[in-house]
Amino acid sequence: xxxxxxxxxxxxxxxxxxxxxxxxxxxLLTENVEILRSSFRRVKRRHPFxxxxxxxxxxxxxxxxxxxxGDADYGVRWSLIKAAFSRGLPKTECLTASRxxxxxxxxxxxxxxxxxxxxxxxxxxxxxxxxxxxxxxxxVDSAKAWPYSSFHRYVERGVYSENWGGGLASTVNxxx
Length: 176
Fold this sequence. Notes:
Strand order of the largest sheet: 2-3-1-4
Strand content: 5-15%
Shape: globular
Largest sheet: 4 strands, antiparallel
Number of helices: 6
Order of helices and strands: EHHEEHHEHH
Number of strands: 4
């Protein structure tokens, strides 16, 4: 079996996908978005990074982070964010024997997907993907209708028009 190697470029900019353990009909993240936001803030204070783009969906999230120069430890940050979020919720989930053995809550998938962004076009494709994702999943008809997204900041900064993301499926790409 080949071991997966993560890209650990210090000061890099990365696209992430992080998913809940149970994705079917799960609304954990949007129902508890304030706990998630608080978890991000708490970790950012001790382990700085910038959130360049983000979307929180009911059962997963996508984001782009830039790490400080000389730092590539996004794994610690994700572990701390997941743990803080989990601690903020009552223990109601069923746990597998494996999760019980590891002392895990079972709210998150253990792994996450990461991709280091190589250039501005790569960044733009992934930012578009992030902001289009609620439309892709049929949650809303346009990007502006989804409240848990950095799309609104991008509109304020003039990156997108307010009407961007309404029926542009063929022009928005990326990977999940």
